[in-house]
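note to self — DONT lose this again. spent like an hour looking for the file last time. sequence + predicted structure for the chain T wanted, 167 res
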Amino acid sequence: MTLAELNALPGERAREELLRCCGCARWADAVLESRPFPDKAALLSSSDAAWGRSGEEDWREAFAHHPRIGGKDALRAKFAATQAWATGEQAGAAAASEAVLDALAEGNAAYEKKFGHIFIVCATGKSAAEMLDLLKSRLPNDAGAELRLAAAEQNKITKLRLEKLLS
């Protein structure tokens, strides 16, 4: 889709496209209010501004739109290069060992139990082992700090997906 096509979409259809990039309704509505976008930079700036005005409830809403890492089968599906956008984001984890997949499943379960949401990381260019290291390094965080970190990671993911939407 081009920027001109995004600008021309009826409101609800444009909202659906934005929600594919970030599952937060308030963020999508705020970005829509900035249409039409004169260029991609304006869209990305609008996205940053909308995310900057969001809060904990919005962040959790966005996190809930990501697949949950559970057992090895779910991990393989999450890291498989089968979904168009997930291909580039998670390609580095496609060849993960059973031990790393087991550790990721266990680590994510501990993370979710502690923080109340799934582990959010911008996976682009990271191997499963790198993501496991990040998960382990973030587990000791306090809940507030971790929520802010996860929100920052969500913003990175959103920007990448907006770029993909316009490619």
